[in-house]
Design a protein that fits this description.
Length: 251
């Protein structure tokens, strides 16, 4: 089979439309993968009843670990669920967490976004806070409840990067402005997780996996929004696309 573009598997989320359950993915995710990363977007029904990690690794060249309303179940990092932890998607947990570990081992590229950022940390043995805004000294990182999509995804705070990490090299800047639409956040880093960017209140916003041979950059914000025009999103998805293309060429 001759492929014209490398394939990026987009992690789908379970949603209810009316009373009908669907697997869905945001249009911005597909647009960022196709138009900025230059790859073929393929929406994954993230449920072990329908797909296996082995099949996904074979079919896809890279993965976009998307945001989503359900959170990683705290049992995955040894804690009991509370009301603050919100809703869960155990089927997604069952696919994404072993998928991340397999990608790290193989050097297969992935880009984590929001929940995906948190999944990377949990997959590597880290833990999460259920609600960042309840912590002393932290800001409210959640999506504004009102306004247009443009207003909800507007740039709201700076992210500061370490002086010698990959994000500063990628963006050519020590600090960038980002949107923020999340409730949970990293509590303790997992094994080999390197936090490389922070919000002004100290919340981790960017990470990578130490000594991984593949692309593992992940962010707490939503770079898929307006990715073709945003000066931060475009180089991030561009670098991801290059990594996926290199994997596809040499797989």
């Amino acid at each position: 089979m001759c492929r014209t573009r490398p394939v990026v598997g987009i992690i789908g989320n379970i949603n209810i439309i009316g009373d009908y359950p669907v697997h869905a993915g945001g249009l911005s995710n597909s647009a960022a993968v196709a138009e900025v990363a230059g790859c073929l977007p393929l929406l994954i029904p993230t449920d072990p009843r329908f797909v296996s990690v082995a099949e996904l690794l074979d079919v896809c060249d890279g993965f976009l670990l998307t945001g989503g309303r359900p959170n990683v179940h705290p049992a995955e990092y040894g804690e009991e669920p509370t009301e603050a932890h919100g809703a869960f998607d155990r089927a997604r947990d069952a696919i994404t967490l072993p998928l991340i570990r397999a990608c790290v081992e193989r050097g297969q590229p992935f880009l984590g976004i929001c929940r995906g950022f948190q999944e990377v940390n949990v997959a590597m043995g880290g833990t999460l806070y259920p609600e960042i805004r309840d912590l002393p000294g932290r800001m409210n990182h959640r999506m504004p409840p009102d306004g247009t999509l443009e207003e909800k995804f507007a740039l709201r705070h700076a992210v500061r990067f370490s002086s010698d990490g990959p994000f500063r090299r990628l963006f050519g800047s020590a600090e960038v402005m980002t949107n923020t639409l999340h409730g949970q956040g990293i509590k303790c880093e997992g094994c080999r997780i390197v936090i490389d960017g922070w919000a002004p209140d100290g919340t981790p916003e960017a990470l990578y996996v130490k000594d991984a041979s593949g692309f593992t950059l992940s962010v707490q914000w939503h770079p898929e929004w307006n990715a073709a025009n945003d000066p931060v999103s475009r180089p991030l998805f561009g670098a991801f696309g290059q990594a996926v293309a290199a994997w596809a060429q040499h797989r």
